[in-house]
Design a protein that fits this description.
10 helices, 246 residues, five-stranded parallel β-sheet
Length: 246
């Protein structure tokens, strides 16, 4: 094209690089996709996990504090209006904001990962405190076990579960993987599912895998041709900043 320094191949490569697969679960994936689109990327929204709420459990005693390690934990909590004044410890700012929007009035954020959350709890509450962790059926890490070992009366109740979507269904919903420039990974389990997609796809992926944490990146570290990037902090703002500088 006259007056342009980009060949058709260069334009095609640019389109591939700007095409990013958002593998995050619904409904949070749409917020991620919108942020990417505002930054000029083509967001391909295909989740690899489904989230389903679990039946509510009856509480015998009210806890002294509530712990959330995800927005899904907040979304599927079963607590009554009387519990909304109980102090809440959230793993990150987005989870904390979700708790505030759900009506909890005393919310603090660890602004990090589960280790940061454990540290915040230990710094804020004395041993013997009664804590309730509302989590996924398969919780990442052993927060409650660690708190028990520190002398806290911690218990965990699963309020939702994540189920893996079939690899064939995921691949059928995606463009060819060699037409995608990057993949966003928000959890270790999602990383495992995406890794199986890459292994089983007929079209090799050789782009960038953007991971929210080292644990989320673990399934990809030994793959050839894959450029793995890890966010400076385990939050979406850091992931988006990472993408912008790549």
């Amino acid at each position: 094209m006259e007056g342009s320094d980009q060949s058709p191949t260069g334009l095609r490569d640019s389109a591939i690089r700007s095409s990013l697969w958002v593998s995050r679960t619904s409904p949070d994936n749409e917020g991620t996709a919108n942020a990417l689109r505002m930054a000029g990327y083509n967001a391909v929204v295909v989740p690899v996990l489904n989230v389903q709420g679990l039946p509510a459990k009856a509480l015998v005693d009210q806890p002294g504090a509530i712990v959330f390690t995800s927005m899904n934990g907040v979304r599927h909590h079963f607590l009554s209006q009387e519990s909304l004044g109980i102090p809440v410890f959230a793993v990150g700012d987005r989870t904390a904001q979700s708790a505030v929007e759900a009506g909890f009035t005393q919310v603090v954020s660890a602004a990090g990962n589960v280790s940061d959350l454990e540290r915040l709890i230990v710094e804020s509450l004395p041993p013997g405190s009664r804590l309730l962790h509302l989590s996924a059926r398969r919780a990442a890490g052993d927060l409650v076990g660690n708190l028990h070992r520190r002398g806290y009366l911690a218990m965990r109740i699963a309020v939702y579960e994540t189920r893996e979507i079939a690899i064939a269904q995921i691949l059928a919903s995606l463009p060819a993987l060699n037409r995608i420039g990057g993949i966003l990974i928000h959890s270790p389990r999602a990383g495992c599912v995406v890794r199986r997609c890459l292994d089983q796809s007929a079209n090799p992926f050789d782009g960038v895998v953007y991971c929210i944490s080292e644990a989320a990146a673990a399934p990809f570290v030994e793959m050839e041709r894959i450029n793995v990037r890890i966010a400076a902090r385990p939050d979406e703002a850091s992931m988006l900043a990472l993408i912008a500088t790549t």
